[in-house]
Amino acid sequence: MDQTTPKGLKDGFSYLKQAMADVTRTPRWFVILLLLALVTCIPIFGAVVMYGFLLRWAREAAWRIDTPMRPRVFDNSDGVLYAFGWRAFGLALLYSLIPGVVAAALMSGQVAEQIASGALAGSAFGGSAAAAVDVTLDLPGQIISLAVEWLVMPVIWVAMMRMALYRDGGAGLQLGKIFQMIRRDAGGLVPAWLFYCVLNTALSFAASAISNWTYAALLNPSAAMLGMSLAMLVATFALQVASTFLMVVTLRAVGRWTAQFEVAQWGPKDAPLPPAGGYGAAQ
Fold first, then answer.
1. Is the distance from CB of 78 to CB of 100 less than 8 angstroms?
2. Residues 137 and 107 sit within 8 Å (Cβ to Cβ)
3. What is the pTM of this model?
4. Looking at residue 273, what DSSP letter applies?
5. How do residues 199-244 score in pLDDT, each as one tens digit?
6. Which 8-state DSSP code applies to residue 133?
7. Distance between CA 264 and CA 274 in Å, rounded?
8. 197, 258, 175, 264: CA torsion to nearest 10
9. Which is it for the CA torsion 221, 224, 226, 232, positive or negative?
10. How far from the centroid of its chain's Cα atoms is residue 47's Cα?
11. Contact assessment for residue 40 and residue 240, using Cβ atoms and an 8 Å cutoff
């Protein structure tokens, strides 16, 4: 990194690089990754297990404990796998409502605009109102919705880290402290944020394309189409593995970012954060 790169960004790239090294240094790391990806195919439960597994490891990074990933995905010997997982799932669901509300508001605006322009004229006389309205967001709306989703991601990650460190879901709802942490070193989060958001968005586009191809194959059943469907199934799982890898690396990097706040010196969750520039004991 050249000398003009802000220190926060330099540190952020270091956290990301260290996180990748942490993953690949883990014995049988790719097998663990495959198992995690397979588990995440199970609705809700898979996300709970993944969050619990990864946040326990990220918490160790925040405490400066340099350990590999646990070899067993369902290891709950310390009793935190499902506790962390369910709380993190709830936090992710709650904070994800923000981009959802924005998207809904944008859609409502488009529907209202179509109504005002007469798009629904005559729909009550033999036409469905729902069919008369295109509820798909236009390009500017999609960009706004995606931007909001990206901006919320660091908030979700820091909320999850606070929850895991305090073992208390309420710590993940303290927006004042979450934003205070982000403000102190937003630059340190940027590399992990871009790494996850850009690549995950690309994977989402790829998954959408695969879904369209699979649908087309199902509409034209034949031996060739069956083979294509199987190939699409394999490709879909490959994307799931890639998406899981992004989350593993990102949460580990966020754990390393959190370590700079000297969590061993934190007080109760309602206590002030240690002062910046050394992060000494809370007053």
1. no
2. yes
3. 0.82
4. P
5. 998 998 888 888 777 766 666 666 556 666 677 888 889 999 999 9
6. S
7. 11
8. 160
9. negative
10. 11
11. yes
